[in-house]
Please model this.
Amino acid sequence: MVKRAIVAKDRVNKQMKRVGGLVGCQMPDEMATKADATQSLLGCLMVIGGAEDRASDCRLLQAFAELCGGNSARIVLITTASGRPAQSFAMYQAAFRRIGTGDVRELWLDSHEQANSAETLATLAQSTGIFFTGGDQARLQFLARSRAIATLRRLVADGSLAVAGTSAGATALGPVMILGGNVRGGGDDRDDDDRNDQDAAEDRLRMGPGLGLLPASVVDVHFTQRTRLPRLVAAVTRHPSNLGIGIDEDTAALFRSGRFDVLGRGEVVTVDAVPAADPPAEPAEPAGPGERVPGMRLHRLRSGDAFDLERRHPIT
Model:
C-alpha cells in the first residue's frame, strides 16, 4: 500500500510539472503555491472525457485544482446538467477536499433569470475555477446566451479563470454540442443516472447550440469506451468548420494559447474535415486499425502529446 501511494504521488507530481511547463511556469515536486498558480496558470479550459478518477489519486481533478490556485483555489461546481445535483456536488466536493481544496461551492442554475442575476455573476467573478459536472447536456442549452456564460468567456479570454467540464459538461463547451444519438456507436452521452431505454434506442444524431467557451470545435466523450468515432464523424460532417475532439474516460485535453495537451490515462482523437479541393490526406497517425475515414483527417494523441489548433496537426 505504501509503495502504491508513492507511485501514485510520483505520477501526480510529474503531471503537475507538465501542466506547469505548458504555460511557462516551473513547478517543484510539491504542488504550486496559490501565487504561482494564480499568476501563471489561469485562463485555460480543461475538457474531460468523463469517468475521471474521484477516489484515489484524482490526477485530473488535482491538475485542475492546481490550475485554479491549489489549496487556495475557489472552485464553483455548476451542477445544472445533473439529474441529481445534490449527489453530484457532494461527490465532487469530497474529491476536491481529499486533494486539499476546501473552498468548493455549488451553483445550480435553473432559469435565465438566475443565470443573468447579479448574485450569479458575482459568484463567478469571485471564483478561480468553474467546473461543469456531467449529466444531460441538454439541460445546459438555456445558458448559451446568458450573462453567466458571457462572463465566463470574458474571464477565460483575459486569462483570469480556469474552466473545466466533464462528460456532458465537456460536450457542451463548444459552439455546437452533440445532444445525443448512437450513430452505430455505444450509446447516448447522458451519465448513467440520466439515461433510459428510449435514449439508448435513439439512433439519430441530435445537435444544438453549445456554450461557446471552446471555439471552432465539437466535443464527444466516453470516446473509446462507447465507440463514438462514427458519431463524431457525423457531427463534423454536419459542421465541417469545427474540429472534432473525442476524449476517452479519465482523460483530458488542456486548452491554452492555440494548442491543447493531453493528460490522463486514455487518448484523444481529432477529426478534421478535409476541404474538397485538397488532395486526399492520409493521417500521420490514424485513430486505430481501419479507422481511415474518407474526407476526414484523423489523429490519435496520448498523454504527453500536444496538438496545434491553428495548423490542426500534432506538435512534434
Notes: Residues 1-9, 23-41, 196-201 have pLDDT under 50 and may be disordered. Residues 34-315 form a domain with the Rossmann fold fold (CATH 3.40.50.880). The CA atoms of residues 187 and 200 lie 6 Å apart.
